[in-house]
Amino acid sequence: MEGEEVEENAAPFSRILVAVDNSKRAIRAFDYAIRLSMLAPYRAATISVVYAVTPPVAGEEGVPAPKLIESLRKEGEQLIAQLKLLAQTQLAVRAGVTTR
To answer: Is pTM, for the whole model, over 0.90?
Structure first.
């Protein structure tokens, strides 16, 4: 996906689902989804982001499972917030909007 250009004659999407896990590959996939969303004829497509992890067995690594799950949930929420900001910034740049 890195360096891949979105074909201008590709069919536009109205909804795109992207699964992320905080890896560089997932971030690139999200960036690609943003570029695909721009192909919609009248407005950018809706991008839905899913963050899912497989929690370790309870008590693994000395961390109680409920605390670990809560930590993973917060990590996912932070990542999704960062991706939302990234999408808003990229869409604004592509639309020619400047910020101060």
So the answer is: no
Q: What value, to the nearest 5°, has the Cα angle with vertex 45 and ends 20 and 98?
A: 90
Contacts of 67 (CB under 8 A, 6+ apart): none
Q: 8-37 burial, b if ≥16 CB within 10 A, otherwise e?
A: eeeeebeebebebeeeeebbeebbbbbebb
Q: Indicate the domain borders of the chain.
A: 15-94
Residues 2-23: tens digit of each pLDDT: 456 655 555 577 788 999 987 8
SS3 of residue 39 by DSSP: coil
